[in-house]
């Protein structure tokens, strides 16, 4: 009888130790919030809650609490763009963001965290300026609740893939400049591609929305685009918007009224039709391209300096509406005699190149 009792007692002790071990493991699996002492934070009156400004802990698994001192945690990063501090600059490999967070601010995920994929909760409505500046995260999953992406949000980041939800209506200047994006679909509610938004990226494919009205300065400059279809809604194409890309084809709709300085400079375009609402062909608009033919509409009244210079252009018909051709407009082209006569009638120095 005593032997049986001893055996039962040993079995009970073994089970108790096993339960204690399991309990200890469950406490260390990252399901508990990271201690408040591991964060620097401050109250943000605009957001009506606590904003995490710095993680000072050492854990690779971080769970941001939904409340600190009974106040909701509503943001990560800062509104103050003069502060160049990354919230997470340690080797964080796993990060849980609570549903209380609505704003991702400057410096939130800059630098090399160790994290490569980030899923943002459905509570987030805005990605602030410089939020992922220089970030090594390669994939960010944005919820359908995000409505805006701030200026330089992903500037010079390692971001390779991102799906922009249709809830987004505004993308700031230089938002993806210098990132590693190769393709993107711009959301249907976006009406303007701001300056430098996708410049200096390896972008090979872009889909532009029907609501788009303007394409800003250097918006796609130095990308690897080979073709682009510009929606009929677009009214202006900014300076150097597609300069130094690999474009061989560009469809420019008739609604476009302005084609900026050097807008298509140094591309591989071989032919182009100028929209019938354009009145001025700006400085160097097609300089250094591979144009062999161009159609200029009756709406054009002036052709600026170097507009078609340094191209293999062989023929062009100058409409009677053109009253001004600037010096150098057709410098270093291969125009036939008939075309040259029409041009020389308006500008004796039209074929004079730069020193």
Textual characterization of the structure:
Strands 1, 2, 4, 5, 7, 9, 11 and 13 form an eight-stranded mixed β-sheet that branches. A four-stranded parallel β-sheet has the order 15-17-19-21, with no helix packed on it. It has a three-stranded parallel β-sheet with strand order 8-10-12, with no helix packed on it. The protein starts with a helix and ends in an 11-residue tail after the last helix. 41% of the residues are buried. It has a domain at 28-180: Ribonuclease Inhibitor (Leucine-rich repeat, LRR (right-handed beta-alpha superhelix), Alpha-Beta Horseshoe), CATH 3.80.10.10. Mean pLDDT is 89; it is low at 16-30. With 355 residues, the chain is mostly beta strands. The chain has helices at residues 2-27, 337-344; strands at 39-44, 49-55, 61-63, 67-68, 71-76, 94-96, 103-104, 117-119, 126-127, 139-141, 148-149, 161-163, 170-171, 183-185, 192-193, 205-207, 214-215, 227-229, 236-237, 249-251, 258-259, 271-273, 280-281, 293-295, 302-303, 315-316, 324-325. A hairpin with a 4-residue loop joins strand 1 (39-44) and strand 2 (49-55). The chain is built from two helices and 27 strands.
